[in-house]
Amino acid sequence: MKRLRIPHAAVVALLLVLVLAVVATAALAQNSPTAARNDASVAKTAPPTPFLTIHPEAGFPLDPFLVSLQGGGPVAASTLAKECKGFVPAAPTVSFDFKGKADLLKAFFYSAGDTVLVVQTPDGKFVCADDASAVVLDPMVEIAKPAQGVYNIWVGSAIAQDLVPGFLAVTTKAGVSAGALNLGSLVKRQTATEFVATRARLVNAAKRLEQVNAAVKSADPLQAGSKPVVKSFTATGVLPAVELQTGDTLCGGLVTVAPVYAFDWTGASKPLTLFGEATGDTTLLVRTPDGGFLCADDADGANNLNPLLTISAPDAGRYLVWVGRVDPSQPVTGTLTLTEAAGAKPKALPKQ
């Protein structure tokens, strides 16, 4: 029997045809409607590992619960639920393990962009949201009588691949919403300056004090045993008090270069007390005759935000007094009092 000889080049060509056929078949299967339905089904039954998993303690003590993140992704939200709009990441953005009891569970994304939200409840159902209202583009999902369990949350955007920074909020409070949320009300703190090397700070402070001395045109003569002094002031400063100080004591508040009051002290006296009574939160900064600084803030913590400072044995010489404001958005008016009366203290500033 004669053997059929097939040229080597023909064998290579045949193998190449077979490989291309297999690749084409796989590609057609992957892009077929059936495959798309299977992928969507997998997404619904077993979502990929979330970007972040949160396990708040039972009772939900931190409410609202905020997470800083970026919303958006390449996947059409309609693959999770056909009624959902926008584009989301392939995996849940946050997995929220809810163990508390509440009448309402609400999730929304607070941002400056146009975002969407998809929430998968513990029973596997999907709830989606777009704009909360005609004027609020933040999405919000509300679930009445929420069941305990894991809530998978996708934060997306209206445009594919558009990444929108913001805060995902989860709350059980009916009054907390995307339109009403005020981040500034959650954490109240005084403005602080960035760290400045000690030598550079002292050089800058020395220059500032030259400006201070030029601004002080006169000082009231005060003698030990005199009657109390009361001076009106309006605090409008934008200069951090620390920029005037040459010592180790660092005071808070925003002041003007010119002090609100200057006095030349003479005589031996009992302790001298200074305090402010104002329409808003203020601080006191005092430069003593030896060039040192004294400062004061709240007279009684949160119970009284007016500042109180007592100099146990005031030296003779010139004193410069600044009243600093804490909130730079508006001026603060009030009175500054200097007295030798024992136990003197300011009236309580009404709580803001």
What features would you highlight for this structure?
16% helix, 4 helices, Jelly Rolls, disordered N terminus, single chain, 352 residues, alpha+beta
Q: What is the distance, rounded to the nearest whole angstrom, between the alpha carbons of the first and last residues?
A: 107 Å
Main sheet overview: 5 strands, mixed
* Quaternary structure annotation: single chain
Structural class: alpha+beta
Shape: elongated
Rg from C-alpha positions?
34 Å
Strand content: 25-35%
**H and E order:** HHEEEEEEEEEEEHHEEEEEEEEEEEE
How many beta-strand segments? Answer: 23
Tell me, what is the CATH class of the largest domain? Answer: Mainly Beta
- Poorly predicted ranges (pLDDT <50, ≥5 residues)? 1-45
Level-2 CATH architecture of the largest domain: Sandwich
Helical coverage, percent range: 10-25%
What would the average pLDDT be, to the nearest integer?
A: 80
CATH fold call of the largest domain: Jelly Rolls
Write out the strand line-up for the largest beta sheet, numbering strands in chain order: 1-5-10-7-8
